[in-house]
TrEMBL record, chain A:
Keywords: Membrane, Transmembrane, Transmembrane helix
Record-annotated YdbS-like PH domain positions: 76-153
Membrane in keyword set: yes
Transmembrane segment boundaries: 20-45, 51-73
Species whose genome carries this gene: Agrococcus terreus
Protein name: YdbS-like PH domain-containing protein
PANTHER family listed in its UniProt record: TRANSMEMBRANE PROTEIN-RELATED, UPF0699 TRANSMEMBRANE PROTEIN YDBS
Signal sequence, start to end: none
Automatic annotation (TrEMBL), chain B:
Source organism phylogeny: Bacteria, Bacillati, Actinomycetota, Actinomycetes, Micrococcales
Transmembrane stretches, start-end: 74-92, 122-142, 278-298, 304-325
Region (Disordered): 1-56, 571-646
YdbS-like PH domain mapped to chain residues: 144-222, 458-527
Keyword annotations of the record: Membrane, Transmembrane, Transmembrane helix
UniProt organism field: Agrococcus terreus
Domain of life: Bacteria
Segments of skewed composition (Low complexity): 8-36, 571-598, 614-625
Biased composition (Basic and acidic residues): 626-646
Coiled-coil annotated residue ranges, if any: none
PANTHER family cross-referenced by the UniProt entry: UPF0699 TRANSMEMBRANE PROTEIN YDBS, UPF0699 TRANSMEMBRANE PROTEIN YDBT
Extent of Pro residues compositional bias: 599-613
Protein name as it appears in the record: YdbS-like PH domain-containing protein
Amino acid sequence: MSERLDVTGAWQRISMRYAWVESIGGVITWAVIGVGATVPLWFVFDGDLPLWAWLPAVGAAVLAVVGVVFAFLRTRTIGWLERGDDLLVRRGMLFRRFVAVPYGRMQVVDITQGPIERMFGLKSLKFVTAAATSAIAIPGMPGDSAEELRDRLVAVSESRRAGL
Amino acid sequence: MTDGHQHGGPQQHQPWPQQPAPGAGAGAPWSQQQPQQPQPQQPGSAPAPATTARAKAVELADGEWHRLHPATPFLRGGLSFVILVGVLFSIFRDRLIGLFVPPEWAEGAVEDEFGDFVIAQLLWVLIGLLVVVVVGVLLSWLSWRVHRFRITGDQVEVQQGIFVRKHRRAPLNRIQGINVQKPWFARLFGACKFEIQQAGSDSNVDLNYLHSSLADALRTEILNRASGRSTHEADRMAAQRRAGGGIVDDLLRPDAEISHLAPDSLVRIGIGRVIASSLLDGWIAGAIAYTIGVLVLVVGFQQFWAIFALLPAAIGFFAAGVRALSAKLRYSIAATPDGIRLAYGLASTTTEILPPGRIFGLQVKQPLLWRPFGWWQVTFTRAGKQTADGSGQGGQSGQMASYLLPVGDLRDVRAVIGLVLPELARSPLVDQGLFGRAPDAFIVSPPRARAFRWFSVRRNGFHVHEAAFLLRTGRIWRSLQIVPQARVQSAAVSQGPIYGAARLARVQLHVPGGVLSPSIGALDQRDAGLLFDHALRTVKAAIDRDGSESWAASVARHAVLETAPAVQDGLAAPGPLAAPAHAAPQQWPAPQQHGSAPQPWPQQAPEPRPWRPPAQQAPQTPAAEPWRRPEQPPEQQARRHDGGEA
């Protein structure tokens, strides 16, 4: 099998700590689902669970582990590349997607930080253009570099803004 | 209240370069100055000459606060009146039906206690209704009193609301279009809806309702300012318009006052074609199929309940169909100095002016049943309020809002495309995009993509023109999407695991609005990567030379006016085709010179043979463009070999 779609360049990777953010989020979600599925069964069978009744919990555990593995794999693939006239964001290994936004087209650059991200000192950068379908984000950036990049992008996009 | 809340995403980052007139300044916007209320003009009275209308429009745009048409409360209240009648009808529906249904059918009817009560207490009910009506009238009169607008040098401001005050400002240079709607009801009062469209989902500035006689002049005045045109130039154009003709009675010819402003419509759609095309595609076809289904059920299976259960829906279908049909009637499109003017509608009319560069993407498509007739439909997307299902604007303009051409033949399509993108007016690319197949100017999917595009593998492709991206898809449902380069917001290239195994990819061009999402799949990943890279380079260049914000001041887009008559002439008898734009510097890298390059498709047809609708005057065959490939690195050529064999 030949090589797949790629864009070469000096890609900047996001912090690998973001994989932990994703993992913790995924594990919590699957734990809630697993417990939520098991507890009613526990009551139905009055504490004496047959073997199959553990299936949802086991399934959730397996999916959580898979999710953790994929979170690490996926985090390795997220990156951004500042080129002369546009910002390129890549994401995904199996489902690859490269999005490029010309600097002059950025309308808003947002920084967000969720509770788990805050624990790891990470921030997410979101870009808004006039097109709703653009929806681009760079998650898991170390706090300082996120603000640096934001300021740089805002400055460049201000100077190049040209209508819609 | 002083700084209200401003709407719209982009513009709130813009500083306001000029403050409004100091007398009416933001410090005391509610000071008790009496706005100059224009005299209500009765529809029957003598029409005002164009000069007066323009003078009044200039007066309206003088930076002072003005109120809307005096009939506004009534026209707005009309809706609640309809709702009231609807509620009453729904309460008494059973009784009304009971009047017409033989008594033996009504045996099982449920007792309607509420209805009995209402009839017993008729006097009180009437008094209650009267109070509701009086309060409603009072409130709407109050809201009319506080609903004011002013147009200053560079923005439009609207204040409204009794309990919740709303203050909206919109910069003129971000106008996406100005829409004048005349519902038939409002036309009786000589009023119309005036809508200044801004980018964003809920950022339009509505001046509902204005005097019809003033609306057009006011629109011209606003567009004059937005375009950055000098006063002298504006006066000259006004004089030209005056020479063209005066204002005719609004009730008789609802779009008369704008018709002299621009050359006649580039496109004429006969009433027969509108009806036939609607019969073959759209609501009417659905309504007929539905009605036939109901009739079969009733007559064939003796299921009489179906009449009551299903017929209302059929009526709704027909009503929607007739509304869509009547909106398409009297459709016209023309070039004006301020962009493209669209007008349509029979009883309720809409005229809309889209300044240059406000069209973010076009799609030319052909419903399957239109194919024998060679009809096409052109839809477009814009940044303002516009949704595919028509819920955005409601009524006829909701359905029409995305049509640039509801139905037309090839000549019409070319005229419309030429209006939006003069560079493409005479290009053979349009023909190739509509009818063409593989060996032509488009770069198409490789043969191994047949699994993903069974019939259209040789059609599914793209071309990068210096002004626009052309994406063509579909052999059965043909479609050509044209995205002006200066309007692309961002681009994406993506590849899932299955595409990855076949080394294919999809490219998406992001444009505002929800009507179109231009994308092309099943491309060779190299081609996709090239398109993606190239798209961004050309978009950047296009942004740099784009001058659509104050279009009169920039030369780039002024071409719309100059080329429009040329388009007409050119279509009647196309001269030698303009040199294709491939030589332009921002084009694809120089095409391969040596003919030995491996071609994914056999070259046995040197001239693309565009499919032509039968029984139709064929335009001159466009000169065939050589099948070109962008320059490829050697390893890619090697890859193409196995690609061709796969």
